[in-house]
Amino acid sequence: MASDRKEKRTRRQERKKKERTSRPATYDSGVLERLLAKVRPDMHDHYRMVYVEASRIRAAAESGSALVDDLNGFIDKTCGDWELRSRPACKAGCDWCCHQDVLLAPFERDVVVREMRRLKLEDKVEARLAEEKHFVWVPSERKKMPISPCPFLEDHRCLIYAKRPIACRTQYSLDAMPCERAVRSAMESGTDVSYERAVVPAAVGVASRNAIDRKRRVSMRDELRRAIKEGKRERGGVSRE
């Protein structure tokens, strides 16, 4: 009896999964066209392809974490194909882009926080966030942004690399010198010096996020601070009981 129920449950789960993966992409073509109006004409086909595929991934995802994992896999594959053709300056040990605040799409927040907790990095992250000294006014965000090593950066490598946010996955440059100049200028004079990002990976990130959730992105550092405070309150509540 128990085995029969288990088999029925398994078949039911497989049937539901098949139904989810066979659904057409759920997106509003009108919304897509409005988004394309803000994109360079030569990037329209690429943006549309990414948006449609990210929409399909969203429709098929069984959970929030599965959505992020599947979406990240697609982004990595797409950017990897571009990287083979374009040979960007980015390489292991180059971390100039890791000295700015990362903006998270709302659906990424819990994934990053869970990874921090899984690796037991709360104390290290909290200490590093407390050491921030350099800030720069960023007109596009209409606020000051920290310019200091990412709290997950250690020995020029990312501690949560497998779960890093979309903004990090799609941050490419064809020349490392402008990246270095931008960071040094911000630290030394508080001046925001923009540098040109590689267009194709940037479009992959924007299209993917817009297909999932077009809410305003949030500061990763602010969300980490909030999560650390939440964790302390939860542990405090448990200890008093």
Give the count of helical stretches.
10
Q: Rg from C-alpha positions?
A: 20 Å
Provide the low-confidence segments as ranges: 19-24
What is the rounded distance between the termini?
42 Å
| Integer count of domains | 1
β-strand percent reads 5-15%
Q: What string, H for helix and E for strand, traces the elements in order?
A: HHHHEHHEEEEHHHEH
List the helices and strands and how they pair.
Blueprint: H1 2-22, H2 29-36, H3 44-60, H4 64-86, E1 103-104, H5 109-118, H6 122-130, E2 135-138, E3 143-146, E4 153-154, E5 157-158, H7 166-169, H8 176-189, H9 199-212, E6 218-219, H10 220-240
Antiparallel strand pairs: 1-6, 2-3, 4-5
Helix pairs in contact: 1-3, 3-4, 3-9, 4-9, 6-10
Question: Can you put this structure into words, describing what you see?
Answer:
The protein has helices spanning 2-22, 29-36, 44-60, 64-86, 109-118, 122-130, 166-169, 176-189, 199-212, 220-240, and strands at residues 103-104, 135-138, 143-146, 153-154, 157-158, 218-219. It is mostly helical and 241 residues long. It has one domain. The longest helix is centred in the N-terminal third of the chain and has 23 residues, at 64-86.
